[in-house]
Amino acid sequence: MIHVDSVSFGYSSKKLLFENLSIKLHPGSIYGLLGRNGAGKSSLLRNIAGLLFPTAGKIEVDGYEPRKRQPSFLQDFFLIPEEIHLPSVTVEKYIKTLSPFYPRFDEKQFRDYLKEFGIPEGNKITDLSYGQKKKVLISFGLATNTKHLIMDEPTNGLDIPSKSQFRKVVSSALDAHRVILISTHQVRDLDNLIDSIIILEDSKILLHHSLDEISEKLRFATLVSAEDDNRVLYSEPSLKGYTVVMENWEQEESRVDLERLFNAVMSNPSRIRKIFQKP
Amino acid sequence: MNQVFSFHRYWLLLKLDFAENGRRSLLSLAVIFGLMLIMMSPVIDYTKFGFDRTLFHPFGYCLITFCLSLSTSLVFDKYTSTTKGIHTILIPASQTEKFLAALTGNLAFATVVIALFIGMHIWFIDLMAMDVPDIINRKYSPPFILLLVYIYFLVQSVCFLGSIYFKKATYIKTASVFAFVLIVFSLINRAFVRNATDGDPSISAIPFGQWNVMGRNTVFKIEYGESTLLLIKIFLVFFVTALWYIAFVRLKEKEI
Hints:
heterodimer, A: three-stranded antiparallel beta sheet, B: mainly alpha, three-stranded antiparallel beta sheet
């Protein structure tokens, strides 16, 4: 479990990027972390990874304090950053030198992922394109079978077919003991992948709920007109009228549209908070 | 599981470092060796160009000190860049192991180079002495060799600290700070000597070294007692170790 407890952080002491943030991430779920550019998503991930140290509060990952960077913590933690680095060696050499650090690394799994992504074996990593390098790192990260897998903008640099391969591969890698946290501003790439959402904005968590909870409280629909409807939190014009996010008074089922949800939370944070505070 | 140090993880880190940098290090070693050979060996007869045969031996020392300090200033280069830093910090090994692996690799490389220099110096002087017996007097004495070795490793340890301390223009900043500290220390030493001798201009002293008194046609050297010399040597070794320790603390505090 990842527990962020009243954490504050800023690159300068005068301006905090986020303040008094608390979240709990449980194993067996894929969390999507959404937010605008500069909201602090990457910084939050780096605090969880122990790359940055909070100015206040505490972070615990399965009882370990990430800032101590202990081997036991690191063996069960893998971060795929937005800007990747891979050494100038062949894929074989990469596995040979790095995999011994991860006790649960599965080479067969790694090769299966590479095959799924269509990466040729035997090539030097530097000879691969950026997208291919990213796929190698994603494959390696998944094959380490760490309990905590964090990905920062993993689909950046991937072509369209690769994005659906990514969704397929990541969803198959989830098990009851694993926490997967994906940070992105490309919400469409997380469609049918995540089961919980965290939205970070203006130094605070605006939303932290599972998709089931969200679809209970909110309805995603298309209306002919959105005016004079008190239930509507957010609307945008579409061919058939208005696609809306509205309060789900009738408890109707609807598929959560991540992009519309994000826009609704951004435009109506206080109302969203009230809706999700109600029992 | 030991969270501080494990030989297995330490060995894995050394293997990883060698896989990433081994080829470059061996190439650098070959280039340095080639340059030393050209400068120091009797293969080229520098007397034909009006130079003393052993003139380039000190230059050889300066060359290896400079080249190695450049290489040492890049030891923690991977922690200063965001992409490499994330990858390196998150490798499942303790900070102690990562630090020791970096230090071991650097010291091993530096030791091989200085050993090559000393070996080549002694061997080539002995070779040249077969033709010109007087040359044997140019061979560095053991205390002088010890001094050269200390200065060499002092420079490496300063660059080692600088490589984790400075993010950009590492070598220039480290060299500038080192030069500044040397100048200040020399001035303090000079002021101390002047104060102790009421400003007598005939007396000078090297920091931590002997005092020189200029006579009419001679120079009198006043050396420290054995126990004082031992204390000074212990302090100087402790100083180098302290620089490594500060680098270790800095590594632990490193944020990306």
